[in-house]
Amino acid sequence: MESNAPSTGTRIENGVRRLDPLPTAEELDAFYSKVYHATNSGKAPDIARLRGESDAAQKERNWRFETTYTDVLAYLSETVGLTGRLIDVGCGSGEFISFMLNHPGWDAVGVELSPDAVALAVARGLNVKRGKIADVGSKFGGGFDVLTMFNVLEHVLDPWEVLRTAYSLLRPGGVIVVQVPNDFSRLQQAIQEHIGTDRWWVAIPDHINYFNFDSLETMLSSHGFQPLVRYGSFPMEFFLLGGFDYVTDPRMGAVAHQARCAFEVSLVSSQRRALFEDFARGGIGRNALVIAQRNAGSSG
Q: Which residues contact 269 (CB under 8 A, 6 or more apart)?
């Protein structure tokens, strides 16, 4: 095990940068049940923006539907085909499931830890159960064509076990879609020096694991998956260089987010995918999204 300078609050474990010290399972359970999904907690603003049926929430859904979800569906159509059985792990209130069910031929279900989010999903008529990835087999069985995890792997105490379970839930040749924040990038660290702020991307206690494209692909490869696509979302850090300092002035976050949404929606899927694949090749993008295919053999 390699240790880093204590000031970072992180260490490298099996190729993955992690919080140091790690929170306990009990601390995490308390945090997620009482703080993380609370509307006014300041945590997970992307989740907060989806709450309810307001115009703002619908606008947020439409942006996701028209950008990331549309692009992921295009990739799935190229790898899996136009139909399949999909499980979304950590599905929140079921936005991606709802999107996939709007496309004939897809059967989409999900698991989610937050009881409030599950209740919202069920109220919308979605097949979502409360639980973790370890509960999927008992609730839905296995043999999935696609398993998706959007911003989940950074939150778990044992990401290696999560990927072993994901492998077991997919059929041979099935596809996994993993999105995580792209952190400790050269861009982030250059901006940190430029504006003289702390490492704002370190989120305690909820972000336990910190990935980049290389470490995520390496981890997937070591668990029986062949990476196929590397896709980097719009680098929000660009706004910091342009004077939109959402780190020290959170009000600027909403301005930057709306500008990012307008930019992404202005591109058709093929243009956006080509651009974001270029971002990913350079190791930049606010999120790192990797699509990989399950090998036929053992995950090791």
A: 70, 71, 74
